[in-house]
Amino acid sequence: MTDVRFFARRYGPPPREARPSFVLVHGLGLSGRYFVPLARRLAAGGTSVLVPDLPGNGRSRSAVRRAPDVGQLADALAHGLARGLGRAFSTGPTVLVANSVGCQVVAALAARHPHLVSHLVLVGPALDPGLSGLRQFGRLVADAPREPLSLLALAGFDYLVTGPLRCAASFRHSLRDAAAAFEANLSRVRAPTLVVRGAGDTIASDAWTRRVADLVADGYARDLPDAAHAAHFGAPDALAALIENFMAGEPG
Is 88's pLDDT higher than 50? Predict the structure, then answer.
């Protein structure tokens, strides 16, 4: 399923040689819609931003017949980047920003296709290989009251569009990837990597977030106060500032 066409939103000016291009990668069962606040904030600074709905999710649900696994999503996204996603986006190295299970996708992409990646930003990386599926689900439920109500409404709609059966299949794929490949993929990442955790995140623990930063070759772990698992939605300005400092070589 490498050559799969999928829907993507674009923000900011056309890509330019002197500026990085960003791709924002959503989590399990969702669409790129909850990345729009961050996309607009980054684009306001003159950055070219792409926000895809990964194959099988959101407006790309019909792009595939079954829920792809993590490796298939990584390869499909890599193929899209390599062909410039319809010639409307840069074909050079890209900054990948991901949330939750999207972090597994971009870790696989960076490990398999390192030439496509300039930097990584992992927001609330999931899933933790040390936890069972039941505990992971329990942490997801515990995080919900900490997120903005507008995010819960958006996510609920996206889950319905993607469909409960596909969401369940994607969760199983993600659990298998976490157990078998996630840490190995992270250890193969050579791109500078910023790992961000909302201080109220119940899904990505502080210990796991810092382990992720230690696994990559050049990693930095940072916390965002007043944010939970979807820190990019709850605190887009603060996260954008962190990313801009990181890109300027000042991750602190």
Answer: no
